[in-house]
Amino acid sequence: MLQKSKKEEMIKELEGVIKSSESLVFVNFHGLKVSDETVLRRNLREEGVSYKVGRKTLLARALKGKAEGEIPELAGEVAIAYSKDAISSPREIYNFQKNHKGILSILGGIFEGKFISGEKMTEIAMIPSREVLYAQFVNLINSPIQRLAFVLNQIAKSKS
Fold it and tell me: Cα–Cα distances in Å, from 40 out to 37, 92, 127, 156?
């Protein structure tokens, strides 16, 4: 059993994490093997995402009053993934979950100061990265110009 001072220290640490993060994801990691967790932590670290396993009771205390809405149900063994970037923590958890089916599940999280459900957090996780969005935008703008050039080229060929 943890001493009260240790619990208070853990709660303060969690409160600091919640305050300094742009987004926070609640993850159920039931059935995660140590080898898979090592891979997960390495992948998250490379993307600037931190991962912390905590007690649900202490996490619930630390979350009280930190965001709008109601805390999602934290079932099973719970960890949190958090980052300074609003989308990288849900995206990286989602990518790991996609590659390792049935091990992790997103329970919910905090995004833009609000508690959100697991479904909404998964939707956020599926937003493409900035570079991909830029590429899609450039392609969207470039496409009509390419088609116009193709049509003009065909007209020029037919007249000659």
Answer: 5, 9, 20, 57
- For position 112, what pLDDT does the model report? 84
One-letter amino acid of 103: I
Shared-domain flag, residues 84 and 136: no
Strand partners, 108: 26, 117
pLDDT of residue 66 exceeding 80: no
One domain for residues 157 and 104: no
pLDDT at 135 over 80: yes
Taking the C-alpha atoms of residue 14 and residue 23, their distance in angstroms, rounded to an integer, is 13
- Contact present, 106 and 93 (Cβ < 8 Å): yes
Q: Which of 105, 115, 45 is nearest to 76 (CA)?
A: 105
Does 94 lie in the same domain as 34?
yes
CA 105 to chain centroid: 12
CATH number of the domain that 70 lies in?
3.30.70.1730
